């Protein structure tokens, strides 16, 4: 009964913080949460922690986690099952309709010129460093091709993997952002190129944003999401390393994440929990990605064929369209019919055989009416800004020019008053550097022109009378400014080109009908920021994109780029609080490296011989020599910290007392004693000699020979293709040990 009530409650009240049906502990936690939220000085991480504590996991999320077993194993039975799966079951997943599809390295890029041709649809995997991107790419295909390390910063380039044979999808393993063990400049370079790639790549179908399940959403992840949203890229969150998080905790985290992310419009699907390393929850992701593969069927000359190339597909599609158009024209020429032109044009545009459709529909009811054509209006040529988000640019302009809207209205009015062709919409494509050149002109006449800039400006002034020139130079924007706004500015002559970061601060001459033109300034090479990257007041108020540089101010004229870069670098090097965490994850790898033994010290070290009844023998170099040969007694006898040589030699306790401890002996004396002892016991008490790990030449040779034999055999098998080389594969290919299998396993 209690379980029933609980289930009903869980379903009906998902994460409702105000519910009455809670235990006192939960109520206390919620109270703490509200208190922390009300206090603005509380660290956001603490609020997040409290939020997770007091959240109620959604039932469907809990169910999904339970069914897919992505969370941390908690029972011995599950642990055994997982161990068995990983050890004995071969991993050959079906992806893109192929079993264990091939992963072929296409290219690794860190520059635009190195990018491959856009032949395949691409899915990029991005996320913070060490979030498991390369591992996910590997395990999607069931392979170990991409480079994986425990240290953050293992992938330093954009790695393009062609997946499948024939290749049907391109997986792009992006370098991570946030903390990484790499030089500062390198990190900046790869981060910038990654951002550019995401923004500019046309065939990028989706970005998988990987979030470490142990950490949840970090500020840099939020930045990345807002970046993706801003540039209209479809994205999806994949929560990795779920095998490290307890199920209930994971469910809570996912529920909160879903709630937070549901506001974004470019989120293609809900956050997906996976554990790449334990191979759980990957099927759902494979299904999602399989829908994006390139495979199109074309029937040509009665032969059906598949095309796995987007460029080829486009070419074929165009050829097909051309052919159809040609046929239609030929048909029309053969039997001409009076056809409504507009109607036909519509059909052509939509590419639908709507004529037939209309005929069919005509038998059922009234035929669709063709809307009456309006008289053609004069179409004004308008240059639309390159930016997708016009409002953002407007806001940006308004922040620079407080009276922007008025100016714009005035400009468009004057444009329509004059011939209508000269003045177009503004275009900020050239203002990406955040710097403008401002020229002051009198109505219709340039006031003064400096020698170096003269040509360009003259062109501008001519363009007013020359319509052709206007179409060639669409970036130039002219608009009038009311003369009563200017108060005069010291040292500014009319016509003088002024480079400024804030044109609105340039005051005009009172009483003059002046004009300001914004001219494109060629962006310098390292200027990678667009006007879109500047922090707008609206963003600032909403708390977004705090890392973005604010608009340039008179206090920092010309420092825009330097400031931008400084802030950017600082922000992407953020979350240094995670360094300890990252180091904690890879303690061995990040330990300070041991200093190499100096060569002179090596020379000083005495090469210990071992003693046989025939005399000294040099110790063979190599791994495990102590195991094969036993320790030379002199070392043991002479070691100060070894209290009992018999113990060190692993001699049985009954011999302990009889052994010579050798304290204070010189090397030669110890050697002599050992040889004597060996000779004495060799025949009568062979066991005792063996237990003392005394070295025996024959044994050594026999062991070596058997090792060589095994090696030869293994090499022969590898050559015949009977087994893979490599440690893990050998284990997997071992025949099943039936006895070792648990009871519940299928035999
Ligand atoms: N337990 C667990 N560990 C994982 C999982 N996925 C990745 N790892 C481990 O996380 C570490 C980093 O994995 P990578 O795939 O190199 O991470 P990355 O995001 O490519 O890192 P960078 O290339 O440096 O940005 C490795 O030690 C992996 O074994 C997972 O699902 N579960
Ligand atoms: Mg990587």
Task: Please tell me about this protein's structure.
This protein has 747 residues and is an alpha+beta fold. It has six domains: 2-56, no CATH class; 66-294, P-loop containing nucleotide triphosphate hydrolases (Rossmann fold, 3-Layer(aba) Sandwich); 296-333, no CATH class; 390-568, no CATH class; 599-695, no CATH class; 702-740, no CATH class. 42% of the residues lie in helices and 12% in strands. Residues 133-134, 154-155, 173 line the site of magnesium ion. Residues 133-134, 154-155, 173 line the site of magnesium ion (MG). Residues 485-497 have a biased composition (Low complexity). Pfam families: MMR_HSR1. Keywords: Cell cycle, Cell division, GTP-binding, Magnesium, Metal-binding, Nucleotide-binding, Septation. Residues 119-295 form the EngB-type G domain.
Uncertain runs with pLDDT below 50, 5 residues or more? 1-5, 7-18, 347-370, 372-389, 414-529, 573-590, 634-639, 655-661
C-alpha termini separation:
40 Å
Helix content: 40-55%
* Domain unit count: 6
Number of helices: 30
> Can you list the ligands bound to this structure?
guanosine-5'-triphosphate, magnesium ion
The residue-averaged pLDDT reads: 67
CATH architecture verdict of the largest domain: 3-Layer(aba) Sandwich
The counted number of beta strands is: 18
CATH topology of the largest domain, by name, is Rossmann fold
In which order are the strands of the major sheet placed? 3-5-6-4-7-8-9
